[in-house]
Amino acid sequence: MGNVYLGTSASAPPPLLFSSLLSSRNGMAHSGFWFGRDVEILFSGWPVNYGHFHLFLALLLVFMLSALAQMYSMTPMTTPKMVPKSIIQHAALHGFRTLITYLVLLCVITFNVGVIITVLLGHVAGYLALTLYIKYYYPAPVASTPVDDVKA
What we know:
There is one protein chain. By secondary structure, the protein is mainly alpha-helical. The protein is 51% helix and 0% strand. It has a domain at 47-76 and 90-139. The protein contains four helices and no strands. It is elongated. The chain starts with 18 loop residues before the first helix and ends in a 15-residue tail after the last helix. Mean pLDDT is 79; it is low at 1-9 and 12-24. The chain crosses the membrane at residues 53-72, 99-130.
């Protein structure tokens, strides 16, 4: 008789629920790291079918998203006084932060080495940009020693 899958015979395996997400243009999904320019980032068919300029734009978008995600991860989420208006603003900011982080995650799971390097460079650039901005515009106060304390 054979195995039965959801009322079908063993010769016909059940269809995958997310088969369109698992298959690429040639029917095989990448299961490891790979390097190439035929990568789909965030949208089906983009930038593969549009040429080199769109690949550059896609990598620039990934770079900016990862830099923004890094900068948002370094900023504080709460303030000492949270009135209802600021709670709604903080909830919206948290939702936007989560969206940006999720989009960066979707870019990384293409397993393309070029995209992963772009994400890492974006995170480094975001960290450097925010750190240098804070150091330049908000310098740490310098502790001075009092002149009156003279050891006898």
